[in-house]
Amino acid sequence: MEGVLNQLPIGLSIGAVLLLVALGLTFTFGQMGVVNMAHGEFIMAGAYTAYLLQGVGFLVALPAAFVVAGLMGLILERTLVRRFYGRPLDTLLLTWGVSLMLQQLARDLFGAPNVQVASPEWLRGGIGILPYNRLFIMALAAASVLAIWAYMNRTGQGRRMRAVMQNRRLAATSGIDTGRVDQRTFFIGSGLAGVAGVALTLIGPVGPTLGTYYIVDAFLVVVAGGLGQLRGAVLAATGLGLLNSYAEFWSDASLAKVVVFAAIIGFLQVRPQGLFFVRSRALT
Amino acid sequence: MTAPVERAGTTTPAERPETTALAKGGAAPDGPVRRWQGSAGFAAVFTAVAVLALVAAPLLLEPFRLGLLAKYLCYAIVALGIGLAWGQGGMLTLGQGVFFGLGGYAMGMYLKLNDAGGDLPDFMVWSGVEELPALWKPFGNPVFALAMVVVLPVGVALLLGTLVFRQRVRGAYFAILTQALAAALVILLVGQQGLTGGTNGLTNFFDFFGHDVAAEETQRGLYLIVAAVLGVLYLGARQLVRSRFGRLLLAVRDGEERVRFLGYDPAVVKTLTFAISAGMAGIAGALFVPVVGIISPALLGVVPSIELVVAVAVGGRFALAGAVLGAVVMGYARTYFSEELPDAWLYLQGALFVLVMTLAPKGLAGLAAGLVRRREARA
Fold first, then answer.
1. Domain span at A170
2. pTM greater than 0.95 (yes/no)
3. B279/B102 Cα distance (integer angstroms)
4. Which residues of chain A neighbour B357 with C-beta distances below 8 Å?
5. What is the SS3 assignment for B295?
6. Based on the structure, what is the number of domains in chain A?
């Protein structure tokens, strides 16, 4: 029984990381039709930012990683991705090429072996079965979701973002500068991946291929949660994180991914468009 | 189809290839490309390539280089399947490594049992397995193993295709799911050490149907088999694309809903095509095992699967010949650069990909077709 309970914070914190990663993906995909495979490398960039800022303090690393990863996303959007709007499959392959180059860049800058980031003193230990570091990751994700929710529903920029997501042409006709909205979405989404990278340094080592471990699962969150849906992403990420950790617990680590995959396929039989979606008469 | 709302996953006009290019195969109107593809011209080019591959290459290349070429041709068979599913059918599959692996492991299991001659395969002894697992037993029979090379990948593809396409899950979602399947299979294979050989995979083969697998003669024979299989599959795929089914497939790629309204079931068309491409990958995997001497998880994960998609894009996804060409060219490029500039290869591969997607989305075949068209226009 204790084993079962022990898995709970592990599953929830993995779900929290997946959520931070998936938020950026679901918004860039939902709003611009961009499948960004280089998103995983923004996680890695965030993690290495924390590694470089070890002496300065962990709480400085969070906003720094947000800005670093966000700027990388912005550069990617301005230079390449914006030429490919509305062609999701092409963006997928394009950004995969970018992700290869970023991984090699990390190898050249920081070396191929993994590096360890020392967790701050105040995040060691825990209450009972709840380690502080995993609690912190959950709190971080919760705070990020709240911030995103407030941004989308309580600010003018967020309103414009929702408008573009729902109907780009109508939004453009109504005078919204869709290009600017796209840039902001890309910046915020990539920045959140950077924050996820910082969170990951609390539970494991950092390496050039860090992002590749999370990108596939994060995409599954997008598939299961529904495109551009905040609450869908929250539920799907939590569910997938728990499913991952309990499947590992009850079967073994090698079967867990197969179980998750089968569960997703099964879920799509019931809800092919994900948990939540915008009803529309448009043919897809 | 009024008021097209921009939605992810929809084919927009920009993504749709010009239907006059090589893509259209049999249905293309008269034009330079059509003429090149016309029976006489095509037969001449195909025969020339076949003579080059079957006669000249074995005579001219030293055994090591011939082995490399055989390996690239195995990849070319997978690429042919990707060209069919992605270029013709619009299904971007990022998990062909799964089917390649199923075919490869089926062949590898037979070869392992054959070498062991009634004992346990060597890696099982090292992992402390004491009795042959039930999963392995039927693979001692060569006929069963060879059948499984095709049956397993086709079966998995039919199942996945039916479940996914019936629910109208497509586009990037399909790509993501195939990628997740590849990732899951690799973790499974690595984890089940005693059953699959773990990270090392299956290797150390000695006997291939009565021939020493390392012998020069055997390798030359294997090369000829691979080249012949590729040729036959290419002709078959070309015929398929030019058939009524092929036109239906193009129609599904360019306007799935319209095809549905015309009374066809796009899910069936897509599932069958996906299964055919999976079968090709399975055959390629089975040939790869004796040629290269190993099948392991590293050869069939997400990265090798996408690398082959990259190769197809470089060669030209809308032409079957482009897919084959791309696999061979990228194979040589990889070998050359990892010999000469190992560190630069990933940069080069990434940059090449970005360049192809931005500047020449139709790849080498598209560039070639453009040149032909320009010359015709000048004449």
1. 2-270
2. no
3. 10
4. 84, 90, 93-94, 97
5. strand
6. 1
